[in-house]
Specification:
By secondary structure, the chain is mainly β. It has one domain (about 1-65). It has strands at about 10-15, 20, 25-35, 45-55. A two-stranded antiparallel sheet has the order 1-2. Strands 3-4 form a two-stranded antiparallel sheet. Strand 1 (about 10-15) and strand 2 (about 20) form a beta hairpin. It is elongated and about 50 Å long. The termini are far apart. The structure holds zinc ion (2 copies). One zinc ion binds near residues 3, 5, 8, 22 and 25.
Length: about 70
């Protein structure tokens, strides 16, 4: 697989769109895996930092406001 920007060998694929990204063109983005209500009704999130991202696509869904979380 090749980088979608420069056609160098890809170092990995974008977690969101699956495009190949090389060392020069990868980015990192934290993603929220899930949200849950912990003790004392405190909303908590499970976040995975540094997910490989091509820097071009617009990952969906974006973090969603959840006003009814508690
Ligand atoms: Zn590249
Ligand atoms: Zn992408």
């Amino acid at each position: 697989m090749l980088c979608h920007k420069c056609d160098k060998p890809a170092r990995g694929v974008c977690k969101f769109c699956g495009r190949g990204v090389c060392e020069d063109h990868n980015s990192k983005m934290p993603i929220i895996l899930s949200v849950y209500v912990g003790e004392h009704h405190t909303p908590k999130t499970i976040v995975v930092a540094d997910v490989l991202w091509c820097g071009t696509c617009k990952p969906q869904p974006e973090p969603i406001p959840m006003p009814e979380i508690y």
